[in-house]
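Design job #97: recover the sequence.
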């Protein structure tokens, strides 16, 4: 019999605030920030193009001290998280149906127009090829100059953000209830069918296994050849993606509950919260950080690998997935955008946050 640890973290006030700085960038942030090696924070936001217009979006670059370096504006909301390429190019999709490449000074290098919204976050290969899907039911590969390398049609919209294995295989899910593995040339390696739409983003472990959730309420673990290693019921019908620590433990927000699972899928703990929208991030000291919304107010929580309460900070409005910097700060898109001191850097040797690593390229070789 599997014993289930169920807990509700106490609503206690912090003795000392962990907040370092905060800045209003727009009306909301729905994406996870990418972090440069020099500490620059890149975040996509929506709203506040000017005081008379609350539509549109921006890619904003901030210093580690929270000072705005530059902003690149678009004409519609941005749900896609930015990815930072090896050459310093920033890539993201937008609801204006365009995919953008922006250089390190905030100037557009090129844009590529698709047939619908682009909410998925891009994966960037070692050759700077950008991979992403859209609501037009197509998955794209673009060359470094913005020309189309190939496109692949699925049976439904694509919100899932792709992951790239060490051998170049590209993984993503679709609303058509299928999970896809494509070769670098766009041909199909294999597909795996579930009973629900797949809107979460896959995580990869050191053995090349793939972890993802489906709106059928299950978490799946597949071998690199597409065979099922295991799956188990979570009940999840929301978008948060799984993250992995170095021991292979799995952490996932499931509706109004945050869960920890062992490598074999056994329950380690379940912690009840009203609502969890984003993906967790694991720090080098093992603490797992995630956002939750309680009665309309956002909090950042930190728990141990055993589910013990380690951190709790009121933030205000919250809707994204945090990123942990090497400086021991955690950055996340509360309203306003905030940095908090946690005193530990990002975990290494695992898929420890949304899109894997600080640059958010979705590549296994960077974790």
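Job complete. Output follows.
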């Amino acid at each position: 019999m599997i014993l289930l640890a169920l807990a509700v973290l106490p609503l206690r006030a912090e003795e000392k605030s962990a907040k370092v700085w905060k800045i209003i960038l727009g009306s909301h942030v729905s994406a996870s920030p990418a972090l440069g090696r020099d500490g620059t924070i890149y975040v996509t936001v929506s709203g506040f193009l000017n005081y008379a217009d609350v539509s549109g979006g921006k890619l904003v670059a901030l210093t580690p001290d929270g000072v705005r370096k530059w902003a690149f504006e678009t004409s519609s909301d941005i749900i896609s998280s930015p990815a930072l390429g090896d050459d310093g190019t920033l890539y993201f999709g937008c609801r204006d149906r365009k995919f953008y490449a922006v250089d390190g000074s905030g100037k557009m290098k090129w844009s590529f127009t698709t047939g619908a919204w682009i909410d998925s976050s891009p994966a960037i290969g070692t050759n700077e090829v950008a991979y992403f899907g859209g609501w037009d039911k197509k998955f794209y590969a673009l060359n470094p100059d913005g020309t189309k390398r190939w496109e692949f049609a699925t049976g439904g919209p694509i919100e899932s953000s792709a992951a790239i294995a060490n051998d170049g295989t590209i993984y993503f899910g679709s609303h058509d209830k299928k999970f896809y593995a494509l070769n670098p040339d766009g041909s199909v390696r294999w597909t795996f069918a579930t009973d629900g739409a797949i809107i979460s983003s896959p995580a990869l472990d050191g053995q090349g296994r793939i972890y993802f959730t489906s709106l059928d309420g299950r978490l799946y673990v597949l071998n690199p050849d597409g065979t099922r290693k295991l799956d188990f019921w979570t009940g999840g019908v929301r978008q948060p993606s799984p993250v992995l620590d170095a021991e292979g433990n799995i952490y996932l927000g499931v509706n109004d509950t945050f869960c920890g699972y062992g490598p074999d899928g056994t329950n380690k703990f379940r912690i009840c919260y009203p609502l969890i929208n984003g993906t967790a991030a694991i720090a080098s000291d093992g603490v797992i950080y995630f956002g939750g919304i309680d009665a309309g107010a956002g909090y950042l929580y930190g728990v141990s690998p055993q589910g013990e309460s380690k951190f709790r900070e009121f933030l205000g409005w919250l809707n994204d997935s945090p990123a942990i910097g090497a400086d021991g700060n955690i950055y996340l898109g509360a309203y306003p955008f905030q940095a908090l001191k946690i005193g530990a850097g990002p975990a290494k040797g695992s898929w420890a946050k949304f899109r894997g690593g600080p640059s958010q390229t979705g590549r296994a070789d960077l974790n």
